[in-house]
Specification:
- The protein has about 200 residues and is mainly α.
- The protein has one domain (about 5-185).
- It is built from 6 helices and no strands.
- The chain has helices at about 5-25, 40-60, 65-90, 100-125, 130-155, 160-185.
- The radius of gyration is 17 Å and the shape is globular.
- It starts with a helix and ends in a 9-residue tail after the last helix.
């Protein structure tokens, strides 16, 4: 398997773990950052797989281009910072403290991921073919989540689980990038399995 295929597989595995966490949350389990229960471990494993997979794809992207490399690297910073935040919060006796330096880590990672998703989405949309659809999905998910964040921070009442649906769309977009890498890795192999 190529490096791109490995990265794509990790992204897809991370997306599957996020799906498991979604089901646990909808079933009433406490799921979140800093949790030390089984659901918290699932969230941390998902963040780790997404961060590592996206970082690998930044080195061996499914579509060539400098903007794709930069977008994937920035996008990988999001789950990496969230994982670090989750570990630090669970290790802290006080838990999460708003305004602490740990909070800045989370915000910085979210901003890097937002910029990376936009850069990657636009670059993929310009590539044509199936990458165009993946890029469009990534841009739509990113802009929708930005809008939901702005509305939520201004205390605009939203239907139940709206933020969860936005997050689900973002994870689906990231998983689509992983699938694109896996399919691209297979397309670049000869029938006997050796790289072309």
């Amino acid at each position: 398997m190529t490096l791109s295929g490995i990265g794509g597989s990790l992204v897809v595995a991370g997306g599957a773990l996020v799906g498991i966490a979604f089901v646990a949350y909808l079933d009433g389990a406490g799921v979140g950052f800093g949790e030390t229960n089984t659901q918290g471990l699932i969230v941390n494993a998902a963040l780790g797989a997404l961060a590592l997979g996206l970082a690998i794809l930044a080195v061996a992207p499914p579509v060539r281009g400098r903007v794709v490399h930069v977008g994937l690297a920035l996008l990988a910073a999001g789950p990496a910072s969230e994982l670090t935040f989750s570990i630090l919060v669970s290790a802290s006796p006080d838990g999460w403290v708003p305004g602490s330096p740990v909070f800045l880590l989370e915000v910085g990672g979210a901003l890097a991921a937002f910029l990376g998703a936009l850069l990657l989405g636009v670059a993929l949309a310009r590539a044509g073919g199936w990458p165009r659809a993946v890029g469009a999905l990534l841009v739509i998910a990113t802009l929708l989540n930005a809008l939901l964040t702005i509305l939520g921070s201004n205390r605009v009442p939203l239907p139940p689980h709206t933020a969860l649906a936005g997050l689900g769309l973002a994870v689906l977009a990231e998983v689509s990038v992983g699938v694109l890498a896996i399919v691209g890795a297979r397309a670049h192999r000869s029938p006997d399995g050796s790289p072309r």
